[in-house]
Amino acid sequence: MTETPSEAGARVGLVLVSHSAQVAESVLRLAVGLSGGGEVAPLRAAGGTPDGGFGTDADAIAAAAEAVDQGRGVLLLPDLGSAVLTVRSLLAEGDELPADTELLDAPFLEGAVAALVTASSGADRSAVAEAAREAYDYRKE
Amino acid sequence: MTQPSPSALTNERTVRWLVLAAEAVSREADRLTELDSPIGDADHGNNMRRGFGAVRDSLTAETPETPGAVLRQAGRLLVSKVGGASGPLYGTLLRRAGKELGDSPEVSGADLAAALRTGVDAVAQLGGAATGDKTMLDALDPAVTALRTALERGETLEAALSQAGTAADEGAAATVPIRARKGRASYLGERSEGHLDPGAASSALLLAALAEAVAQDD
To answer: DSSP letter at B85?
Structure first.
């Protein structure tokens, strides 16, 4: 999508922040695959360190957040440890993130799927976040 | 005031602190990684060396004009360059302390102690940890308390920072028997006991570098 979306067509943006580039990218592909037909909400993966190792890249997170921002807010979904701490510190200390960016406190894979499906439907940021958080309540047994 | 007070943290000293910290974590990188091997993911030395190396390069290439600005720039770089949990944690420590200092060109010992306290509290909040959880806070928290107490007794900044450094060393050493409650080490339960916390060890290096930076021109 190259043109600026109209206000009506704009969606909440999502960024998947993982220690691993492969995990972030794979979860992104799975979420897109499970989100059904039609246009999908803007979604980017920010995984691993710039040298290809395991870790978190704050600059990549900020760039991804910028890229998915359509003016309806951005949700950053981290996996664990330094990904969570980096997102939290960017939100608390930084000025590099778009307005209305928040941490999405949800399971990484299940939350990503729920958030993308909900965001793609055009739901607002709090509804998208709520749908993803509900994934914590889904029991497997 | 044009003449720097003998107990002020100048811009030059702030840069020297972080350059000495970069040298210390580089020199001790293998030990930090070794400490991080049994209870972490064996990357602490490399992460700290990369992060503080970037800080040193940036500050020597272009030095911000006030101690507060130096700390904010250093903190921003640590968040960007480290890649592990120590990046946002140390980044928050320095960045929040730098924000607290604002843009005054001279910083009194009391200002420094107050700014470090703000930074340490921000680290605790970011990580959801408290002193006694076997983290960097076990070195930082007693060090900042010792600094403030010594200054309140009327000791010089150099003497107060030396006591802060001792408190950091003792705090780090005291993490050995503790069972970790935060971070990856906490998954190990009782197997995390008997190991020095790598974050507390690197925090002690940071405090020692600060004391050294101030002592050098006194």
So the answer is: T
Examine residue A5 and state whether it is found in any structural domain, yes or no.
no
Question: How many other C-beta atoms lie within 10 A of the C-beta of residue B119?
Answer: 25
Examine residue A3 and state whether it is found in any structural domain, yes or no: no
Q: Give me the sheet containing A74-78, strands edge to edge.
A: A43-47, A13-18, A74-78, A101-103
Q: Within 10 Å of residue A78's Cβ, how many Cβ atoms?
A: 26
Total domains in chain A come to 1
Task: Residue window 53-72, chain A: list those with CB within 8 Å of chain B.
Answer: 53-59
Residue of B48, B79, B89, B137 for testing the chain A interface, max A β-carbons within 10 Å: B79
Give the nearest partner residue to B96 out of A86, A88, A93, using CB atoms: A93
Assess whether pLDDT exceeds 70 at residue A85: yes
Q: How many helices (H) and strands (E) does chain B have?
A: 9, 0
Note whether A82 contacts B79, CB cutoff 8 Å: no
Residue A8 lies in a domain: no
The CATH number assigned to the domain with range B11-215 reads: 1.25.40.340
pLDDT in tens, B89-125: 999 999 999 999 999 988 999 999 999 999 999 999 9
Residue A31 maps to a domain: yes
Interface size between A and B, measured as CB pairs under 8 A:
59
